[in-house]
Amino acid sequence: MRDETILVVDLEATCWEDQTTPAGDAQSVNNMEIIEVGCALATRKGSLLDARSFLVRPIRNPELSSFCSELTGITQSMVDAAPTFPEAIAAMDDWLGDLPDDFIWCSWGNYDRLHLPAGRGAASYSGSPSPEPETNLATHYRPEEKERSGQRFGFS
User: Fold this and answer.
1) Contacts of 42 (CB under 8 A, 6+ apart)
2) Does residue 22 contact residue 108 with C-beta atoms inside 8 Å?
3) How far is it, in rounded angstroms, from Cα 56 to Cα 12?
4) Per the structure, how many domains does the chain have?
5) Residue 121: how many CB atoms within 10 A of its CB?
6) How confident is the model over 63-68, as a mean pLDDT?
7) In the predicted model, what is the mean pLDDT of the chain?
8) Is 24 left (phi over 0), alpha (psi -120 to 50) or beta?
């Protein structure tokens, strides 16, 4: 992997229409379980190099709500056949290979940055990507850069 490569991450997690878990707790990154880690390897100029999806089997709330399936497109049979979070992250690590020291990963907004460490803690696992360094694309994306350069991403 070249040092100009970034990993763009998009997580999907268990969710409920009324934002309440089956146990009656308000849903949060601490009780929503990651069910998919979507990954795209790209250059810092926005060219897509590779992409892969890693499905995850939820443990605490193994049955997806119909709302969650409709929102994400992920079905119960898909997560039933998926590996656990540590196994999925290990598969992602294998796919990523050796990462350079200056490697960064990105997501849109804070949700993925906050949810990944919460998923790690629940699963007692610390694989890639690490919580830092992470770039919130929403704070770096500038439409005027896109128009001026024709690139997909403009970083400050």
Assistant:
1) 5, 6, 8, 48, 49, 152, 153
2) no
3) 10
4) 1
5) 12
6) 97
7) 80
8) left
Give the contacts of 51 (CB within 8 A, at least 6 positions apart).
38, 39, 40, 41
* Cis before 131 (ω within 30): no
Q: What DSSP character marks residue 26?
A: B
CA dihedral (51, 88, 60, 75) in degrees, to 10, reads: 40
Its domain, for residue 95, covers: 5-149
CATH of the domain at 9: 3.30.420.10
CA distance 108 to 138: 5
Q: Given this model, what pLDDT does residue 106 score?
A: 85
Q: What is each CA distance from 139 to 8, 135, 142, in whole angstroms? A: 14, 8, 8
Q: Would residue 109 be called left, alpha or beta, if left means φ above 0 and alpha means ψ between -120 and 50 degrees? A: left
Q: Would you place residue 129 in the very low, low, confident or very high pLDDT band (cuts 50, 70, 90)?
A: low
